[in-house]
Amino acid sequence: SEFTKLGQSALDFLEEKKDTVTISRNGKTLAVMGVIELPEKGGNVWLFFSKHIKRTDMIIANRMVKTALNTLKDIGYEWLQTPVREDFINGKRWVKHLGFTPTDIEEDVFENGTTYKYWMKVF
Q1: 45-75: buried (b, 16+ CB within 10 Å) or exposed (e) per residue?
Q2: How would DSSP label each residue in 70-87?
Q3: What's 50's DSSP letter?
Q4: What is 102-118 written as a DSSP string?
Q5: Residue 20 phi, psi (nearest 5)
Q6: What are the residues whose beta carbons fall under 8 Å from the beta carbon of 112, sequence distance 6 or more?
Q7: Whole-prediction pTM value?
Q8: How far is CA 50 from the centre of its chain?
Q9: E strands, the chain, where?
Q10: Per-residue confidence in pLDDT tens, the chain, 123 aa
């Protein structure tokens, strides 16, 4: 897999969930994004970038993710959460740029020793 720190079984699990989108350019996958519905009109949004993503690709992916978040709002989601690896500084900056705020919730999402902090966005 060209996605870092994520096993194929984890990707397979996430892709089986509903509302999954693949962001591609020139036949190459840039990112895989999805949402898992939560109670009270919430959603757990997840996104994994290819380890080969370049700056121009990131600009395209950023615009597509913003559109996807607005679409989730339009179809009735009132809040979203997303886990971000604690050691992924650019990921933290990016979700902050997208309007998410950090919570106090931390978890080893994939039970592989990697800590994730949850961020939340309320529409």
Answers
A1: bbbbbbeebeeebeebbeebbeebbeebeee
A2: HHHHHTT--EEEEEEETT
A3: B
A4: EEEEEE-TTSSS--EEE
A5: -100, 135
A6: 5, 7
A7: 0.80
A8: 12
A9: 20-25, 28-38, 42-49, 79-85, 101-107, 116-122
A10: 444 455 555 556 556 655 778 888 888 888 888 898 999 999 999 888 888 888 888 888 889 899 999 999 999 999 999 999 999 898 899 999 999 999 999 998 878 888 999 999 999
A 10 A CB-CB count for 33 gives 22
Of the candidates 74, 76, 61, the one whose C-alpha atom is nearest the C-alpha of residue 28 is 61
Distance between CA atoms of residues 4 and 26, nearest Å: 21
Give the whole-angstrom CA distance, residue 23 versus residue 67: 12
The answer to whether 105 and 118 have CB atoms below 8 angstroms apart is: yes
